[in-house]
Design a protein that fits this description.
The chain has 235 residues and is mostly helical. 67% of the residues lie in helices and 0% in strands. The chain has 14 helices and no strands. Helix 7 runs parallel beside helix 9, helix 9 packs parallel to helix 11 and helix 11 packs across helix 13.
């Protein structure tokens, strides 16, 4: 019988992160995250692999003890929450605890992508996102919008989603970029319905035009449609 593998300690996790650090990637990634000055340079696939290893051990102790020494430790915190074997109610509680720790678009977006069981619990997550949208906090709102584009671009959520888009008034750059991105994703999946929304919406001019730009950049939109979209820009 194989010997059971012991959970990773905080010291071992720290050592692993240092081993995985790539100075070249740190330099590249730092340019994408202005204001974040504690980046080691560990790539996301390596962090995902390490998170899964942590989640097989005492992941709750990890979440409690994991400090913010490096940006990658925030990434790990979110990834472990995403892959820990818990019921959805518990996961929502963990998400709630983690949200104040998000302070950049990369941690936000990777975290959203890790919450795969949302697809089986859409209504519960939808209700959870409502207070995020009303919080007034930049990255909680972005979290909600990225979750929407990742898991709620579905026929049954279209009208509710469009109403949410119209209700977002936060002026932070990463909120407006997420909103524009969300509109473009909905357009790719539901062009006719999103066309109608784009003809009558309450998006500010910058976000509206950015959404059109993102639609025209999609390889899943044909040339004729792109020309039509370009003609819809606001002056």
């Amino acid at each position: 019988m194989a010997e059971e593998k012991k959970p990773l300690t905080q010291e071992e996790i720290r050592a692993r992160l240092l081993e995985l650090a790539d100075p070249g990637y740190r330099e590249f990634h730092s340019k994408l995250l202005p204001g974040i000055d504690n980046i080691l340079g560990v790539r996301v696939p390596a962090l995902r692999k390490l998170a899964k290893e942590i989640a097989r051990g005492d992941w709750e102790a990890f979440l409690l003890e994991n400090n913010r020494e490096w940006y990658e430790k925030d990434m790990l915190q979110g990834l472990v929450i995403g892959c820990a074997k818990v019921d959805f109610e518990k996961r929502l509680a963990l998400i709630q605890e983690f949200l104040p720790r998000i302070n950049n678009w990369a941690v936000c977006d990777v975290f959203c992508g890790s919450l795969k069981d949302t697809a089986r619990h859409r209504e519960e997550m939808w209700e959870f996102l409502k207070p995020c949208l009303d919080s007034g906090r930049e990255y909680e709102i972005r979290f909600a919008l990225v979750m929407m584009l990742g898991y709620f671009a579905e026929q049954s959520y279209l009208e509710r989603s469009f109403a949410v888009f119209d209700g977002v008034t936060h002026e932070a750059y990463y909120v407006r970029m997420a909103l524009a991105w969300a509109v473009s994703v909905y357009f790719v999946k539901f062009p006719e319905e999103t066309f109608r929304y784009l003809k009558e919406n309450r998006l500010d001019d910058w976000t509206y035009n950015k959404a059109l730009q993102k639609i025209t950049e999609s390889y899943r939109v044909d040339g004729q449609t792109k020309e039509r979209i370009r003609g819809m820009r606001r002056k």
